[in-house]
Amino acid sequence: MSENIIEKCVRASIEVKQKIITDKKLLRQVAQLAETCVKSLKGGGKIIFCGNGGSFADAQHLSAELTSRFLFDRPSLASIALATNNSSLTAIGNDYGYENVFAREIESIANETDILIAITTSGNSENILKALDAAKNKGISAFAFTGRGSGK
User: Fold this and answer.
1) Using DSSP, how many helices (H) and how many strands (E) does the chain show?
2) Which tens digits make up the pLDDT trace of 14-70?
3) Which of 61, 47, 55, 36 is nearest to 124 (CA)?
């Protein structure tokens, strides 16, 4: 029984990857994002990630790959995952509401040369939407990875 569940999960993962490699529009968008990130980093900017739950774990992982190494040795790349400072997270959540935890950090640390990458399955998380608005208000390029429906 458990082998069937594992096989089903692996097949579903393969199907998603097959859909990605045949979606030319999506591949162009990912290439554009990569080029924008390279331009930002070369211009002294940083890549800022945010997300909730599993997306928060993904945000931390992606940021770590940039600051550490990915595939080969290279200089560290400027990156941060928002809300990793528990004191800031709880202070902002308490004083300004959880919906503002990412936006407040963007207001304080982000510069026009930075890139925001928001990760959200639903595309509707209020704190993610406010982070995107905060980035827009600061003139920061922002991108979102969302689930199928894309949300707001």
Assistant:
1) 6, 4
2) 999 999 999 999 999 999 999 999 999 999 999 999 999 999 999 999 999 999 988
3) 55
What is d(CA 145, CA 51) in angstroms, rounded to the nearest whole number? 10
145, 120 contact by CB (below 8 A):
yes
pTM: 0.91
CA pair distance 134, 112, nearest whole angstrom: 12
Phi and psi of 45, rounded to 5°? -85, 180
In 3D space, the residue among 21, 66, 59 whose CA is nearest the CA of residue 40 turns out to be 66
CA 88/CA 125 separation, integer angstroms: 19
Comparing CA positions, the residue from 119, 141, 136 lying closest to residue 36 is 141
CA dist., res. 145 & res. 39, Å (int): 20
Run of H or E residues at 93: helix 86-96
- Tokens standing for residue 132: 């995107």
